[in-house]
Amino acid sequence: MEHIMFVEKLKKENRDDYIRIHKEACREFLKAINDAGIKREIAWLYDDHVFVYVMAEDFKKSRSILEKENVFKKWVEITKPFMEEDVINPKNERVTIIEKIFDVEEQLKE
């Protein structure tokens, strides 16, 4: 199981709307995430940064499946204007994975 974290920067003026759309995400969108192989997806907001944790068997494969789904394309279209230009990801890819440097569970297995 992969554990992935990525971060996005939110425009401050869109904070409340961004929170609202996530709390009101439609069932079809949530099911598409799950059906793509993502077992957990959790987002935290700190100031103007959104930190997203994902647990999936194969994150890249799951993203590839999702990116073909109309409900996901619509979600990206709705949320993209809420985000600042990505300073962490200058290549303008959809997601840049943050390097994991510590994992108690994995390290105890060694």
What does this structure look like?
This protein is α+β, with helices and mostly antiparallel strands and 110 residues long. The protein has one domain (2-109): Dimeric alpha+beta barrel (Alpha-Beta Plaits, 2-Layer Sandwich), CATH 3.30.70.1090. The protein has helices at residues 15-23, 27-35, 59-66, 70-79, 104-109; strands at 2-9, 38-46, 49-56. A 3-stranded antiparallel β-sheet has the order 1-3-2. A hairpin with a 2-residue loop joins β2 and β3.
Rg from Cα? 15 Å
Mean pLDDT: 90
> Which term fits the overall shape?
globular
How many helix segments? 5
Q: What fraction of the residues are assigned to beta strands by DSSP? A: 15-25%
Q: Stretches where pLDDT falls below 50 for ≥5 residues?
A: none
Instruction: Briefly note the structural class of the backbone.
Output: alpha+beta
Q: Using DSSP, what is the number of strands?
A: 3
Helix content: 25-40%
Order of helices and strands: EHHEEHHH
Please state how the strands of the largest beta sheet are arranged side by side: 1-3-2
Q: Which terms would index this structure?
A:
globular; 3-stranded antiparallel β-sheet; Alpha-Beta Plaits; alpha+beta; 110 residues; 5 helices
Structure, briefly:
The protein is α+β, with helices and mostly antiparallel strands. It has one domain: Alpha-Beta Plaits (2-Layer Sandwich). The protein is built from five helices and three strands.
